[in-house]
Amino acid sequence: MYYDVIIIGGGPAGLNAALNFGRSMKRTLIIDEDKPRNRVTQLSHGFLTQDGVKPTEFKRKSKADVVKYNDVTYLEAHVEQIEKIDKEFIVKTQVQTYNARQVLLATGLREHGPDITNFNDFYGRSIFYCPWCDGYEMRNKKLAVIYSGEMLLHMVKLLSNFSQELVVFTNGEKEVLEADKALLNNKGIDIYTEPIARLIGNNGHLDGIELIDEQIVSVEGAFAKMYWDTQFDFLNQLSITRDGDGKFETDIYGETSVEGLYVAGEAKDNFAGQLLDSAANGGMIAKMMMMKQIEEDF
């Protein structure tokens, strides 16, 4: 079956894009594996009228808004491969092949946490990465900052807005800038460079961090550096230009180096953001895509 656009990913960017396509009577297929990055998140914040919403409920409502339009179809499936032959995209799932004039990548990001035993037992409950998303809920608690490198001091500064009790853990990274050490010491913020052996707590609630030397530091929560990429196997047949950090290179309209292939939301930024940001970007890119189609057809 031929579509005006196939959207890969059914998160806020993909669904808001689909809403705009549906309202413009563009034949649209959403292919969504339904394994969102935020599946560990209990509640999402910072979105007007949706503050405190469960991500699963947000998605349920979003899908209902989208599929009421006759030109939009939602398919839960895994994309195996995308090819482009002449001006047409061929999108293959495990069981079927679909064709489209344009493709929008709204996959979000592949996410990896730090190499810490039992990290995932606490992530999304008492360990987070985004101060704007979860800093308010963790306010006035003793917080671990599990970071290293150039972003360490930046994250400490951001979290100082929410808590006056911060402890830094570099998880084995011994190289810390002397200026950073001096500033942390001046602020009374301890820094531990030993590797983290394990996290201590129950039912997702972090109580302490045990270092490899068996020292235990009590904390009430943590913010950790996460790692993201968009190196999806199904893109291997497409020669997409990326920058030195692996981010898709796009023009101001969200179009990649492959004509007709666009990217929106977190996949475009190569950085995890809030629901509101991804949804807004998905809607904007959808309009750009449609304008190109309409210009060509006029």
From TrEMBL:
<feature type="domain" description="FAD/NAD(P)-binding">
    <location>
        <begin position="3"/>
        <end position="268"/>
    </location>
</feature>
<dbReference type="GO" id="GO:0016491">
    <property type="term" value="F:oxidoreductase activity"/>
</dbReference>
<keyword id="KW-0560">Oxidoreductase</keyword>
<comment type="subunit">
    <text>Homodimer.</text>
</comment>
<dbReference type="InterPro" id="IPR036188">
    <property type="entry name" value="FAD/NAD-bd_sf"/>
</dbReference>
<dbReference type="Pfam" id="PF07992">
    <property type="entry name" value="Pyr_redox_2"/>
</dbReference>
<dbReference type="InterPro" id="IPR023753">
    <property type="entry name" value="FAD/NAD-binding_dom"/>
</dbReference>
<protein>
    <submittedName>
        <fullName>NAD(P)/FAD-dependent oxidoreductase</fullName>
    </submittedName>
</protein>
<dbReference type="InterPro" id="IPR050097">
    <property type="entry name" value="Ferredoxin-NADP_redctase_2"/>
</dbReference>
<keyword id="KW-0285">Flavoprotein</keyword>
